[in-house]
Amino acid sequence: MKQLQILAPGKVVWQDAPVPEPKAGEILVKVAMVNTCPHWDMHLLDGIPMFAGGTINYPYTPGQPGHEAVGEVVALGEGVCDLAVGARVACWKDAGHHRPGCYAQYVCMAREHVLPLPANVTWDQACSLELAMCVQVSVDQLLRNNFLDGKRIGISGLGPAGLVALQLVKAQGAASVVGIDPVPARREMALAAGADLVVEPTAEAWNEQVKGKVDSTIDCTGLKVSIEFMLERTNRAVCIFGVLRETIEFKAAYWGGRSLFGYEPHNVGAAQRALDLIAAGQLDLTGMVTAKLPFTRYMEGIEMLKRKEATKICFLPWAE
Predict the structure, then answer these.
(1) CATH level 3 topology of 131-261
(2) What is the spatial distance between Cα 52 and Cα 245, in angstroms, rounded to a whole number?
(3) Residue 189 C-alpha from the chain's centroid
(4) Is the pLDDT of residue 239 over 70?
């Protein structure tokens, strides 16, 4: 089989490797397609840790950072009896970069980290299920606190996570959604994905177009400036989804019931809720994929992401 490996910053190979054998509790998956999680790819290729204070050791783990993947079960490890060979599955949880990832033709996955796909859900529709699960975790925080149903919701940052977030909140009860992003093309994508209003993150644009506050916000940027901008323009809660690397100033003026939510653990319940919405036609994960490429053109795809010419790239392990 073939697998991708990042050998050093800026150096990647698509190399031969033996087909792995599933251990107890694992399945062997023939990968049909895998979508980028853009910041992981760009950070690793630039030699920059994804999280503040982290380190990166090269050569990096083969197949990483691929984790938004779908494929067919071709072998079962000992003890796996609730899936059959031939089952179509989607990865809902990244097992961590200590083990081989999905940038490969075959990969072993823990059985509990995949969900079987309904017959009406295609590879393309389910490929980014893991991202949808991640975002649903933040949506669940709003639902649990009654901060979503019938409310006006802000989505700050309209990259892949933001495009998913705005669909998830609309599908689960939001009265309207305001998308916030400085990039015009991303605001247009948000409108196409169902946002009711899009706006630049400036005080002038906000006062002219939004005219008031949103009830709750999901921040998909992780940026101090974005979070503090939305805290001043949100009535109840700001959920931080993006990777936060700075200290947020929570001012006394935010008192009176306003909350700042950190992120909660990934869980299969969130994944299943997202998959159910995909099957029901209420969540579309295909519109954010800009191009499909073979892994021999991996660097070309990542350069497209860096230049903001793509939102996500879908890589096809079996394409020439």
Answers:
(1) Rossmann fold (3.40.50)
(2) 6
(3) 16
(4) yes
> Which residues belong to CATH 3.40.50.720 in the chain?
131-261
> pTM, whole model, 2 decimals?
0.95
Residues 4 and 13: their CA atoms lie apart, in Å, by 6
- Say what the pLDDT of residue 103 is: 98
The predicted pLDDT at position 217 comes to 98
d(CA 104, CA 102): 5
The tokens for 123 are 């590879």
Q: Does CATH place domain 2-128+285-316 in 3.90.180.10?
A: yes
CA distance 165 to 234: 17
Domain with CATH 3.90.180.10 in the chain: 2-128+285-316
**pLDDT tens digits along 136-188:** 999 999 999 999 999 999 999 999 999 999 999 999 999 999 999 999 999 99
Crossing angle between the packed helical segments 268-279 and 160-171, to the nearest 10 degrees: 80
Scan for tokens 């869980």, then name that residue.
267
What secondary structure does DSSP assign to 251-281, as a single string?
-GGGTTT-EEE------HHHHHHHHHHHHTT
CA 69, 164, 313, 41: dihedral to nearest 10 degrees? Answer: -80
pLDDT digit string, tens, across residues 31-76: 999 999 998 999 999 998 887 678 899 999 999 999 999 999 999 9
Q: What is the rounded CA–CA span in Å between residue 42 and residue 40?
A: 6
**3-class secondary-structure state, position 286:** coil
* 76/80 Cα distance (integer angstroms): 6
| Tokens encoding 215 | 């009830």
Q: Are 153 and 218 in contact (CB under 8 A)?
A: yes
Report helix, strand and coil shares of the chain as percent, to nearest 5: 30, 25, 45
| CB 305 within 8 Å of CB 299 | no
Q: Report the distance separating Cα 57 and Cα 104, nearest Å.
A: 20
**Closest Cα partner for 127 from 35, 31, 36?**
35
